[in-house]
Design brief:
Elements lengths: L1 E2 L4 H6 L5 E2 L17 H10 L2 H14 L5 E4 L3 H9 L4 E5 L23 H19 L2 H10 L10 H5 L2 E4 L16 E3 L25 E5 L8 H12 L4 E5 L15 E4 L4 H5 L4 E4 L3 H9 L4 E3 L6 H10 L3 E3 L6 H13 L2 H18 L3 H18 L1
Parallel strand pairs: 1-2, 3-4, 4-5, 5-6, 7-8, 7-10, 8-9, 10-11, 11-12
Helix pairs in contact: 3-4, 8-12, 10-13
Length: 384
C-alpha cells in the first residue's frame, strides 16, 4: 500500500506493508483546504503532480513484482505509471463517478436526475463545464504520458476509458440512473470500514425518556468547516434534543462552543452512535451518508465540496433527507432538523433503501474484479 504518511496506522493495522510517496506530494500539499476554485484545485492536486505519482508507482512496480494496481480515481499519475509498466490497473471511486456519465449530472454540480429537456440541457452544460475545467490541464497530463512512453489523450476524462476497471464504491440504488455505462465500469457497493482513530464509544446520554438524539458528524477532510459547525451547534441548541458531535481529525474541539446537551468528541464509531439517534447532520461525505441510510436515519446534509453536493442531491432525490447550503442560517437548520424528526417518510425511505445497500455490501464484487485483473497481470509477466 503506497499512500500519504497519515495513512500508515490504518495500513499497518490491516497487516499491509506501508510505503510512502517519495516524489509525489503529501499532507496538505496533496489535499489543500481551499476547494473554492475547482479548476485550480484539479490542476494542483491531480495534474501537476501526475509525473511524480507515476514515477513512484513505476519504482514500486520495479521493486516488487506487481500483478495489478488499484488507485484512487484522482490519482491520474498512478494510472500513468501502471500503464507505462504494462500492468493492469483499476480506478477506485469512493463516491459517485467523476467521469461524466450520460444522463447523470457531474459529481461537482449538485444537480438532480434530469427528467425534462430543460434539466437535460442543464446537466449537459454542467458536464461540459467540468470537462472544460479538466481539459484546461490536459497538456500537463499529456506531457506526463509522453514522458512515460504513452500516447496523448484527446480529453482528460478519456483516461478513465484507459482503465481496465473503474470501480464505483457506491450502491447503484443510491446513484442516479445513467443512460448507459462504459463496459469497464462496475458498482461494487460502499466500503465502510471503521477508521482506527474513531475510538471506542461510551454513550453520554442523560436518563431523560423520549428525548430525541442527534449525531453531528464533521467531515474527516479539512475544509475550513468550523463556522458551519458552530452554526449547526447553535441551531441544535435551540431544540429540545441531545446530540453527539464527532469533530474528526481536522477540527479543533477547543474552537467550538457547545451547550451541555451537545457532547463533543474527536471521534466515535458511527455505526454504534447511530443505534441511539433519531437524525444525522453532516457535510454529506459518502461514508456518513451511506451509514445513515443503512441505519434507517433521516439526515440533513450541508455540503461544502468534493463529492458532498452530489451525495446531497441523491439524499434529497431518494427522499431520505434534506439538504441546505453551507451558508444556511441557524433558523433554517433548526427548522430542517425538526422536520426530519417529526415527519416519518424520511425514515421509511431510508429503511427501504438501506436494505438494498446492505445487500450490495454483502455481495460486493471488488475482490473478484481485482482477482481478474491480477490473473491478467500474471499472464503478462509470465510471457515477458
Amino acid at each position: 500500500m503506497i499512500a500519504d504518511p497519515a495513512m500508515r496506522t490504518e495500513v499497518e493495522a490491516a497487516d499491509f506493508e506501508f510505503v510512502t510517496w517519495r516524489r509525489a506530494p503529501k499532507g496538505e500539499a496533496a489535499d489543500p483546504v481551499d476547494v473554492s476554485d475547482l479548476r485550480d484545485r484539479m490542476r494542483r492536486v491531480v495534474f501537476e503532480p501526475c509525473s511524480a505519482y507515476a514515477a513512484d508507482i513505476r519504482d514500486e512496480i520495479g521493486r516488487v513484482p506487481t500483478d495489478a494496481v488499484l488507485g484512487l480515481d484522482l490519482l491520474f499519475g498512478a494510472a500513468v505509471g501502471a500503464q507505462a509498466c504494462g500492468v493492469p490497473f483499476a480506478f477506485l471511486s469512493p463516491h459517485v463517478s467523476i467521469r461524466s456519465l450520460p444522463g447523470i449530472p457531474p459529481a461537482t454540480s449538485g444537480l438532480g436526475q434530469p427528467k425534462t429537456p430543460e434539466e437535460r440541457a442543464a446537466v449537459a452544460a454542467a458536464s461540459a463545464a467540468l470537462a472544460a475545467a479538466m481539459n484546461a490541464s490536459l497538456p500537463i497530463l499529456n506531457k506526463a504520458r509522453v514522458d512515460f512512453g504513452l500516447p496523448v489523450l484527446p480529453g482528460a476524462m478519456d483516461l478513465f476509458d484507459q482503465a481496465d476497471r473503474v470501480l464505483l464504491a457506491v450502491s447503484q440504488a443510491f446513484d442516479f440512473e445513467a443512460d448507459s455505462l462504459p463496459g469497464s465500469f462496475r458498482y461494487i457497493g460502499p466500503l465502510l470500514d471503521v477508521p482506527s482513530w474513531s475510538g471506542s464509544w461510551q454513550a453520554p446520554w442523560s436518563a431523560r425518556a423520549g428525548c430525541p438524539r442527534a449525531l453531528i458528524a464533521c467531515s474527516t477532510g479539512a475544509q475550513g468547516q468550523r463556522d458551519l459547525f458552530q452554526r449547526v451547534i447553535n441551531a441544535v441548541s435551540a431544540i429540545d434534543i441531545e446530540a453527539v458531535f464527532t469533530a474528526g481529525p481536522n477540527l479543533d474541539m477547543a474552537d467550538l462552543r457547545a451547550p451541555r446537551n451537545i457532547h463533543l468528541v474527536r471521534g466515535a464509531p458511527h455505526d454504534s452512535v447511530m443505534k441511539d439517534v433519531s437524525v444525522v447532520i453532516s457535510q454529506g461525505g459518502h461514508g456518513t451518508v451511506t451509514r445513515s441510510i443503512i441505519n434507517a436515519l433521516p439526515q440533513l446534509v450541508l455540503p461544502m465540496g468534493r463529492d458532498q453536493s452530489a451525495n446531497a442531491a441523491r439524499v434529497e432525490a431518494k427522499g431520505v433527507g434534506l439538504r441546505l447550503g453551507p451558508t444556511a442560517s441557524e433558523s433554517e437548520i433548526t427548522a430542517a432538523i425538526k422536520q426530519l424528526i417529526a415527519e416519518p417518510q424520511f425514515k421509511i425511505a431510508a429503511r427501504k433503501l438501506g436494505g438494498i445497500i446492505n445487500a450490495d455490501i454483502d455481495t460486493s464484487p471488488l475482490v473478484h474484479e481485482m482477482e481478474i485483473l491480477a490473473a491478467i497481470g500474471r499472464r503478462r509477466r509470465s510471457r515477458s
